[in-house]
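BUG-479 | component: ligand-complex export | severity: low

The export step for fe (ii) ion jobs runs without errors, but we want the raw record kept on the ticket for reference. Input record follows.
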Amino acid sequence: MSTVDRRPSTVPAPASAPSTSVSAPASGPAPTPSQTVGPFFGHALPLTGGGDVAPRSAPETVTLHGRVLDGRGEPVPDALLEFWQAGPDGRPPAAPGSMRRDHSTGRDAGRDGVTFTGWGRVPTDADGHYTVRTLRPPAAAPYVGVLLFARGLLHHLYTRAYLDPAADDALLASLPGERRATLVATHEGGEAHRVYRFDLRIQGDDAQETVFLDFR
Amino acid sequence: MADTQPTTPDQKSIDAAMAALAGSGNGAAHPSRAYPPYRSTALRHPRQRLVVVEDPEAVELTGPVFGVTDVTALDSDLTRQHTGEPIGERITVSGRVLDRAGRPVRQQLVEIWQANAAGRYAHQREQHPAPLDPHFTGAGRCLTDDQGRYSFTTVKPGPYPWGNHLNAWRPAHIHFSVFGTAFTQRLVTQMYFPGDPLFGYDPIMQSVTDAAARERLVAAYVHDLSESEFSLGFQWDIVLDGPAATWTENAEDSRNTEQGENR
Ligand SMILES: [Fe+2]
């Protein structure tokens, strides 16, 4: 079998948004602490086409871009962002191929151009900017999950970049108005290939600081 | 790189700041993102509380899948990525990746990166005047097996200086990036070597203020994992925090039940 699927084989692939149950923590082993990604990940973690999550053949794409900013509003040039989302069909992707290697040379071979893996990884540039080109997430979960790592950040931060969310989204509705806005990407232009702006302010005044999430 | 303070503090003042915060995490495994002795945290931590999501969406309880397309057999041997052998003590580092219920994380990606034996990274922004090794890049990856096991062959990294304070040195460490079955279980951390005299001076390691939790960052030397006339063996198990999905046929029913027990 050339693909890996975590799901038990007795469970049929769900036709629409899959149901899940949350595993209880039980009295398991104690977790390994987080440590900063540090400044020197650039020769190890970035990938060819890490931000090209949308297959080349996709008729419609969304581009999400923005800057990572620190508590002074300065760009963070040594951050690493990861993205994870469901596809337009609502299913969490289960296909490998995000970091293909050439088997004859061992080199980074990039994506195959047709598989949607749902996952991307992009380092910020010298101006703190990132770009990811992907497929529109489903209406039921209309966001791209974003993980932020950086030098000076001892434990990663998780957030959601919402694209055109419904007014009654549970998380957004639970937040005060100004803070809610930090999770909603701004449509900058385009139709079939829509471009959205999403900045991450690690630290800021009340209303400016991006809402970061903690999953229990 | 912008410093957050006009003058560079000395080790004594960092030591005092670390001592004042020792044990302050109430036994929490993870460091507080605001940890003043590691000065770069000052402008890089949120001031607001994180917003707790009690009912993550399905997509957040799953995560990316990696497979045979993504990793070659050679990727886990950092001593064989060039035409010659790197300088240094050849070691193996192996262990298991488990979730917080103790279940193995199967067929999932583990990535490592590290300095060479002289304490220098193959990275353009690295300024430490120690030699680069043309036979060592210091990056590797592998997939866990069905018991959650991973294994790397590499050389022991050297300690290196950094700019946090005067005479600041990082203990020797290997950076790890680990995926769980869920995106919410993601972990990036650092593995240390037993008995390193630099532990007490390092604000990154000491940011884990609970002594027992900090101990979980240190690998064990296991003589049986050493190979005669070849390599020294270290063992380090990794336990991922955070919720993951369990796929069941009666998903909605069991979701309600298990979440109820969870609270
Ligand atoms: Fe390091």
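Assignee comment: Attached the raw record above. Residues A 38, 40; B 170, 173, 175 surround fe (ii) ion (CB under 6 Å).
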